[in-house]
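Re: that chain you flagged

S.,

Sorry for the slow reply, it's been a week of failed gels. I finally had a moment to sit down with the sequence you sent. For the record, here it is as I used it:
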Amino acid sequence: MSPDALQDLVKQCLEAFYTRRINNLSGLRLKDVLKRKNPYLLRAIGIRTASELVEYLLQMHTQASDETIFGETFVEPIALAVSGGHKSSAKGIDLEVDAGTVYKAIAVKSGPNVFNSSQTARMNDEFQELYHRLRQHLVQLGKQFDPVLGCAYGKRVSPPTTKRRYRIVSGKAFWEELTGDPEFYLKLVRLMQDYPEQQKQRYQQEWAKAVNRFTRDLLNEFADPSGALDWEKILRFNAG
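Prediction finished late last night. Pasting the structure tokens below so you have them in one place:
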């Protein structure tokens, strides 16, 4: 991929990331978030005002959703474009790359610390299902099946184990394996240039709307006549 094409791709992916972030906020409602949070914890950390609770709820929601959105709109499309492979149709697998004597099946994630034991088992099954589908073809061509969990950041690089039948490659090592360029992981952040700052204003406008919307609904539905938060009412809504 030429430098100009890569620059354009990074810009397009950032645009998609911010569009998804903004859409995620614009459709968000207080009750949808409040019903998924622990009201005992919210009370225990000493939140007393509507503004405190609103900021906390929105921050927790966006921290969780941003990682997923960024992986889907930035990491996966760029990994696909630079890998020389094709998008996989297999469940849980993102890329398939024919690399000489090796056929790589890659599940792309943002970071390396995303899986618990049950998720690892599911990932094993998804790689195994793809292998069974391709087995005869790979044997005929003399290719080795190489299942990989590829992570955009982090330093974890580890071979398969008895419980995890795929290898993990992260950060610099992941991008270098895809591109052959040991500096590619640095190029990605350089190519962002000032585009995030340009997009941030759009996002902040939507954030302000969400804060106002959440604050209005919180005071109308979960505060007593004096303006104090009614924690029993919040708890009844969440768990009653």
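What I noticed first: The mean pLDDT is 94.

Talk soon,
D.
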